[in-house]
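To illustrate the input format used throughout this study, we show a single complete record. The first block contains the structure-token representation of the backbone; no residue identities are included at this stage. The design step must infer an amino acid for every position from geometry alone.
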């Protein structure tokens, strides 16, 4: 197995593949002011196994296109959609987020939790804007510095993980520069990292290692995630996910 295949195996049975929670998704949704007399067209980009997709489908009248590069995640999402009787509201699409071929202004809402970093915040916003109606909303969670002061060691670690990690002020500038107006922002609480993401992850470590005969690559994945957890705990006052909700104005 390649490292990517192992990573997919490590995450495929998880409720989420990144920090977040149903209450964060609902909180972000509250900033969105759209008529719902006909179903809203929503794209959920980098949906993973669909933690947030299911919450969205349960709470808005919508037709959701859930996009991810990895079919195994989409299979899980389709199963969950069936189990919750939401299969008519959710369509899955295997596609890379930087190679989407949706129509111009096709969507009322573009949603993406913990995934835009894969192509970069600025690049993602510029590309996805084309698919969003004027007056439509972007809702994105993204690694964010909580102030301008932070220890060097913390800065280096998260910067190595994601070179575009920045303050909310700078993220908002990027949104505004690209014709978006911020309508809401909040910081994900610690419980969305620990209870919803890291604790369930820690519970999977042993089984994952056993399943893969304690291979070098499997140990590498576990060790890297243990280190990430250590850094999150050390730096939680300096770094979190910010949730940005912005309206397309121009
Ligand atoms: N939104 C989910 C959540 O919060 O639980 C998943 C977030 S996870 C950190 C990032 C997701 O992006 C993964 O599901 C991964 O498979 C997906 N992904 C990675 N590269 C991608 C790409 N090029 N295009 C689309 N999705 C991609």
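Output of the design step:
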């Amino acid at each position: 197995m390649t490292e990517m295949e192992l990573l997919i195996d490590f995450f495929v049975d998880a409720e989420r593949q990144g920090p977040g929670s149903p209450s964060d998704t609902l909180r972000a949704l509250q900033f969105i002011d759209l008529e719902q007399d006909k179903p809203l067209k929503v794209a959920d980009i980098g949906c993973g196994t669909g933690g947030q997709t299911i919450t969205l489908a349960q709470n808005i009248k919508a037709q959701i296109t859930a996009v991810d590069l990895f079919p195994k995640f989409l299979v899980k999402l389709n199963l969950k959609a069936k189990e919750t009787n939401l299969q008519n509201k959710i369509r899955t699409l295997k596609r890379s987020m930087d190679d989407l071929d949706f129509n111009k202004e096709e969507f009322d809402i573009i949603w993406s939790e913990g995934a835009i970093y894969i192509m970069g915040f600025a690049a993602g916003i510029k590309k996805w804007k084309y698919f969003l109606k004027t007056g439509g909303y972007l809702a994105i969670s993204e690694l964010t510095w909580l102030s301008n002061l932070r220890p060097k060691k913390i800065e280096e670690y998260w910067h190595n993980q994601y070179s575009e990690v920045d303050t909310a002020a700078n993220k908002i500038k990027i949104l505004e520069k690209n014709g978006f107006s911020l309508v809401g922002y909040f910081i994900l609480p610690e419980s969305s990292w620990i209870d919803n993401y890291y604790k369930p992850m820690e519970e999977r470590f042993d089984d994952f290692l056993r399943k893969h005969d304690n291979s070098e690559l499997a140990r590498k994945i576990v060790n890297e995630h243990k280190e990430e957890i250590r850094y999150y705990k050390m730096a939680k006052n300096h770094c979190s996910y910010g949730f940005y909700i912005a309206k397309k104005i121009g």
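Structural context for interpreting the output: The CA atoms of residues 105 and 132 lie 4 Å apart. The radius of gyration is 18 Å.
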